[in-house]
Amino acid sequence: MKKLLACTLALVMALSLAACGGKQAPEGEAPAENGDKVVRIGVFEPQTGDNGAGGKQEILGMQYANSIQPTVDIGGETYEVKLEIVDNRTSAENGPSAAAELVNRDVSIVLGSYGSGVSMAGGKVFEEAGIPAVGVTCTNPQVTADCSVYHRICFTDPFQGPALASYAYDGLGVKTAYVLGMLGSDYDQGLMYYFTEAFEALGGTVVSEEFPEGTANFVSYINNAKSAGAGAIFAPVSINYAQLIVEAADAQGFEGALLGSDTWDSNMVVESAKGKNADVFVTTFYQEGGNPEFDDGIREWINANADAKTNNGGNDMVAAVTAMGYDAYFTALEAIKAAGSTDPKAVLEALPSVSYEGICGHIEFDEVGDAKRDSAFIKTANTETGVWDFVKVQSVQ
Amino acid sequence: MQEMFPYFLNGISVGGQYALIAIGYTLVYGILRLINFAHGDVFMVAGLVMVYATASMPFYIALPLVVLATVVLGFLIERVAYKPLRSAPRMSLMISAIGVSYLIQNMAFYITGGVPQPVSNPIPWISENVTILGASTKRVTIITPILTILLVVALVYLINHTKIGMAMRAAAKDFETAQLMGIKINKVISMTFIIGSFLAAVGSMLYFTNYPSVAITSGGMPGLKAFVAAVFGGIGSIPGAVVGAFIIGLCEEVIKGLGYTTFSDAFTFALLIVVLCVKPTGLFGEKVTDKV
Q1: Which of A131, B79, B126, B230 has the smallest number of CB atoms closer than 10 Å to its CB?
Q2: Chain A window 30-69: which residues touch B at a Cβ cutoff of 8 Å?
């Protein structure tokens, strides 16, 4: 009797799994059956893990762009553009398998990822398959330097780190900075290095510490910053840790400024700073209000779509990564148009010469595949209203 | 000394949080000889319930609800995953515990979408900032160790001076004989899980008031460290778990204060290895007597 029960249970489980598998297959095949021409754009983004929140916001920009421009003309024929979204789960270990899945889905070009470490891990797979990739907000220089197919539309850490360092030293008058990042994170470590180098070159001193993955208690780190006499804490960490650092800095009565990189530019960080005693400054790609037409359009789209609103953190604030996702989508379309084909090899050849006027600025690639950018926006968190206020446009001398 | 004060303060608070979780490990181990790996995840679920409950209802309903939901979860885990294996080898129980742990994590993954949930509506009063001897901190930091001690005193009283406590002690001493003497063993075990989950729920509310973000892996690290604390103090011993937790909490924060932030976690686990090699029964561990 017991054996029978166990067998039945096992059978039910197996069948339910099979049912799940069965559902997915026809979904992928559907467009081909009705005869439409389809070009697939891979979206390589984290939707879970530490960077899940940021990845979801970046995808929103691409989905919105896709809803505005769902087709592309290639060689006189109209193709439907289909986004193939995979979850790379934030971590470099999962990057290659997520990337391989995109390769299997026959994508012509890949967008993403939020987070540099996972982009580097995925980049190797794309390189082998000869599929071009456009990094949206991965700022570590090695993403493009070590990979022939990776390009990117954002500024890089050797620019962002010094921009913040010079703002802290000259703009805020900070002489000692406390730098905090996560152990083993390519993104954090890269920015810490470039910030430290620039800040020390300006004549400041830097105290640097690292925390292990999964840390929730930042109280002692803030106390270390206080006892080092730091005027500012620079923490290029993911959104989740940024929220906890803001919280701990407020609780410990840290008087100086909190400096964040582009990851901090999220409505979730500004909300956790609301009502707190915190001076938060971030560098970012786009300032809300920079293009009112885009802002209004995407707000309307987010408000009309409950899932999109949840993915945006429950409100309709426009994150810079969303705007960058939007630009990345159109850059990809330009490349496909220029290639005149859906073949990844042709798109890869056409990509370096693409030039596109995005809402976050003009996009053009240099010989490494990086975007030519020379300025970043600096924003501060308004702790009363809970929104980002524009401070200045920072460039590096 | 004045410089180190904030670290001590924080260390005692962290120790109190670990202690509340460690008791859950040690109680269950004392009776079932089972390391309940799902305990850290019960702690995490309590945090998630708090995030959702405090966002939608007033605190005088939300907080009892957190405790109730956690206790029910702990009770159900025992009934569904451990009770059917009562006569099975202990290894099967252990494997079942690991399975439950992953099941809970993945269910939480499904519900939260894998994104850490911020506690947007922290418990008032205890989440406010105060200044003690020149060190600024949240009020919860001071309340945690005090509440922990009070709860432990109450628990020790319950175990030493009530009927159910006597039954628990008897079951811990000798499972089979206790059963033969007419003790309803299932009731005792359920009670153990209920107490353990209750303390985890209280610990969770304090922990996530201090560090207001609940990820699906949030239970992992505190759970593991509480487990180390229970082993360090002598698994099966309640005072041992509490003392062990406070020592580990204090050491971690002081190590961070001395500038070795990278090694604070490594210290905890190095301690586990050293204790297991040098004094496997821990600080207050029961003496092993061979029954003939």
Answers
A1: B79
A2: 47-50, 52-53, 56
